[in-house]
Amino acid sequence: MRRSIIFGCVSCLAAVVGCSPSSGGAPDAGGQEASSTFDAGGGGSEAGADASAEASSGRDGSTNGGADAAMETGSGDSAGCTLPSTITASMTLDTSCNPWIVPSGGTTVAGTGSPVLTIDSGVTVAFDPGGYLAIGDGGAGGLHAVGTSGAHITFTASTAGPQAGNWNAVEIMDNTLAGSTIAYADFDYGAGTSGATGSYQGPPGALVVDSSTTTFEIALHDLTFKNNQGNGLVMYGTDVGFAAGSGNLSVSDWGTGYHPFVVAANVIGNSPGGLSTGLPTTLTAPATSNGSPAVVDVVGGDGQGGGTNGQAVVQVTQTWPAIGLPYLVDGDREGSGSGMQIEGTGTTSATLTIAAPNTLQFLAQGSLQVDPFGSGLANLVATGNITFTAASASPSPGIWYGISFLLQNGGLPNSTLSGVTIDWAGGFYSSNDSSGNTFYGPVWLNGPVLGSVAGPTITGCTFLNVPTNPQNCAIVATGVSASSLSSYSSNTYGGTKACGT
């Protein structure tokens, strides 16, 4: 049902409420009346029931009462209509009230009625300092923010002369409704790094997607990020994915020590709903920004299971695509000693395949562990022009530990390293033989103490910048069959070798 609220010049001047410059009915000296309306879509559809905002000087914007939203003059430097702290009924933001202001305390779209916030093309959503827009946080809620190529939606700061980080984030949280979409939108001056907002506790980003309890996918396409303080796009949840059609994501800059893209390891090549193949390949970013290189930062994410020492975990069979940017294996952003594990769950195996060409970078003392608990349910497959290397701009031999395979329960014969390059690794994995000699190198094949098993296929690989070590090893093989060890002679060791212990 449509309700038209008509109010005159006198109340406008007295309360300064609801008088958007673009409302089409601003009062004048002749006493002409003005009206202000917006649409509240029902059930995720833009064609839902219409509601209108009631202009009242007593409205504080704390809640929309399940029916309508407060409209006030924004507290920033831009006049507009202020959103309430909680939206519990579906509504549409259109250009009749531009910009729409998100207050410093943030706005959450959630409720028992599963509200959907629809944002029309050409709309500007301006955030007061520290503001954020949370979808599905603490209750079901959806977002349909779809602009056009000629009329993008803009998420920006409300203040005059904005600075990077003036506002925090658009947050897509656990209870976000299926079908939520953000397309043809620009994210400017956000990703504030002053602290977490709402219930989100992950790395700062202008747009963050986070769920560890509910599986869903979101369509993200034709988005730009610029003048942001932290990261650009953060896909932090382990139960979220990119819906089909996602792509064309462009980050122009990011803060010192941050990255254009941050993605949980378990969803890079995996979409939990099975509708897409994970991370889109159409990602663009300049080579560096504020001294920080352009990478896809691989983290453990919210709700990861089984990782140790701050490591990320791949638990589902998937392929990491070649995207033109390196993958920085960062674990849970704990710095030194982080890395990644590949491990299955229950009786389900997990195979990580790296598509070529590709580069995986590791922090100091970082590592890649295949089947670290010896379940026999994990494999690594990397073939062709793929480099495993250090993330440091000035690395030294052995700065990162390397790649280990725990060869219990019959070994890992389905794991393959073929034609890849392993550079600057070899600082950790070690084994002692019966004479007390210590062996360590970039690749550690950790087989049984008694007997032997088949090792993974390692052929045609190149080992560079291996640290000097007493036994001169690049591959350390413990409990590996003689036939497997013999096959490792096809690799290029640069003065080192494969060592059996």
Task: Give your account of this protein's structure.
- The protein has two helices and 45 strands.
- The radius of gyration is 27 Å and the shape is elongated.
- The N and C termini lie far apart (79 Å).
- It has two domains: 40-304; 305-501.
- The chain has 501 residues and is mostly beta strands.
- The longest helix is centred in the first third of the chain and has 7 residues, at 9-15.
Keywords:
mainly beta; 45 strands; disordered N terminus; 501 residues; twelve-stranded parallel beta sheet; 13-stranded parallel beta sheet
Number of helices: 2
**Cα-atom radius of gyration:** 27 Å
Instruction: Work out the number of β strands.
Output: 45
Overall 3D geometry?
elongated
* Portion in strands: 25-35%
Q: What is the number of independent domains?
A: 2
Distance between the termini: 79 Å
> Order of strands in the sheet with the most strands?
6-9-12-15-17-19-22-26-29-32-35-38-43
Task: Provide the residue-averaged pLDDT.
Answer: 81
Query: Largest sheet, if any?
Result: 13 strands, parallel
Unreliable residue runs: 1-63, 65-78
